[in-house]
Amino acid sequence: SKQLGKNRCQFYSQDMQEAARLRVQLETELRMAIERKEFVLFYQPIIDAERGCVSGAEALLRWHHPSRGIVAPDEFITIAEDTGLIVPIGAWVLSEVLRQANAWRIRGLPPLRVAVNVSGVQFREQGLVEMITQASCTPGFDEITLVLEITESVLMQSSEVTEARLREIGLLGIEYSLDDFGTGYSSLSYLKRFPVGHVKIDRSFVNDCTDDRNDALLVEAIINMAHSLGLKVTAEGVETERQRAFLRARNCDYLQGYLISEPLPAADFELFVLRNGSR
Ligand code: C2E
Ligand code: CA
Ligand code: CA
Ligand code: CA
């Protein structure tokens, strides 16, 4: 009825107002989160699919909010991107990874590949190359192979400037991995233009590869095409033994997902490496 519809509209706009209010509040709190040392990095192990040993980790950001508890990145990365706060946050992530890498070296851990997510907003920033060049001079840098995970949108919207940035950063010995592969335009052919050495198959395809014939074919095709272009492949979101078996049988190079391990605090990741070995 009309009355019901009207009430719904009111509820709807109340929800919208509430959402807007929460967003403004999160934005204010996000601005203070770095100085207040509220960010923490978790490390999710990435293993060699064939041998099972640890190849490295993906660093994933967590916000330890004073009253909300641990806030997942999906709830604040977009706000950070819209407000430009992702730039100082991204710089913090990189310096924290390198600090941790140096601490791991001192504690006798072998060299690992550590991947960091870099958003498109950061790539459009002029200061990115300088920030990363400076980071490459800190003691942790030589202890790991640093991998930047970028999404297809970075490459699709790429200008000559972005391309030059990608190459300049690549000269520091930093590698690139194309994240969420399969969700965007997904043309592997343009990858030849860029210094990208890895692709990560999005977990939505990995999820259904053992149940859905189309996803199975797609995963198989991505692995084969990537290999024929000389790229390594990581499958993300591996949750079951059947998925692992499927991926190994199709020569996927690396595996990441809850079956192997959830993202771990640094100390637990260290134990994981000691238990499972590395290469
Ligand atoms: P992503 O880069 O695709 O990261 C993988 C996400 O999948 C992580 O969520 C991880 O916890 C989750 N995941 C791992 N294994 C499994 C699994 O087996 N099943 C399922 N269902 N999920 C799994 P998380 O940590 O919540 O991060 C979400 C997104 O936030 C990331 O997606 C990434 O795009 C972004 N993000 C995280 N940390 C950073 C950062 O430091 N900087 C930037 N710019 N973005 C970040
Ligand atoms: Ca990622
Ligand atoms: Ca991903
Ligand atoms: Ca994602």
Automatic annotation (TrEMBL):
Q: Does the keyword Membrane apply?
A: yes
**Chief location of this protein?**
membrane
Q: Which domain of life is it from?
A: Bacteria
User: Residues of the signal sequence?
Assistant: none
- Which residues are in the EAL domain? 23-277
Question: Which locations, inside or outside the cell, does it occupy?
Answer: Membrane
Q: What is this protein called?
A: EAL domain-containing protein
Annotated organism of origin: Aromatoleum toluvorans
